[in-house]
Amino acid sequence: MDLFNPHTDENTNLLPKDGTVNYYGKLFLRDKANFYRDNLLETIEWKNDQAIIFGKLILTKRKVAWYGDLEFEYTYSNTTKKAKPWTKELLELKALIEEKTGETFNSCLLNLYHNGDEGMAWHSDAEKDLKKNGAIASVSFGAERKFAFKHKDTKEVVSLILEHGSLLVMKDTTQTHWLHRLPPTKTTSKPRVNLTFRTIV
């Protein structure tokens, strides 16, 4: 099911069962969204992501960065990252997202997709470091991209377009029962910056 949402209602659960996903639409006017996109591209300490697959260290084209309240360690894809201290702009965004959602977060994993060729395969964010059934707030700047969910048992798919300056929140049992992905696309050559605010326990 494709949800190309002309009228966004943040209280609507986009999933039919087994989890909660709310799409808030655009939180920022274009100039402000452009400011954050450009600032994050310039000031964040981006590095190619690493994964150990079948014993081999793989470097991704996509770049990542990890920031937090403390030097949290976060392990996924068999590699461990240590959080860097928040930047001024990340703290601004965190406060705004916390006010909007009523949730609290202590860390943020950022992803930089340079163009439509770069995406993310089906996965769920269920690492043991994360608060179980906690909220993950995903903020997007830059290229508009399709984002999809797939139920682990029924294989039902729900997808939507994440707009420039928009917010999506995944919570409750979403990570237990659903996978999500960012499929590659030929329709854009522009970069997308994605911030996923999380709670490390």
Assembly type: single chain
> How large is the share of residues in beta strands?
35-45%
User: Total number of helical segments?
Assistant: 3
Query: What's the Cα radius of gyration?
Result: 16 Å
Number of strands: 15
* Class per helix and strand makeup: alpha+beta
Alpha-carbon distance between the termini?
Answer: 34 Å
Question: Strand-and-helix sequence, N→C?
Answer: EEHEEEEEHEEEEEEHEE
Overall, the morphology is globular
The poorly predicted ranges are none
Share of helix among residues?
10-25%
Mean pLDDT: 93
Instruction: Profile the largest sheet.
Output: 8 strands, mixed
Topology (elements, then pairings):
Blueprint: E1 2-3, E2 20-26, H1 30-43, E3 47-53, E4 56-68, E5 73-76, E6 79-82, E7 84-85, H2 88-101, E8 107-113, E9 120-123, E10 136-142, E11 145-151, E12 157-162, E13 166-171, H3 174-177, E14 178-182, E15 192-198
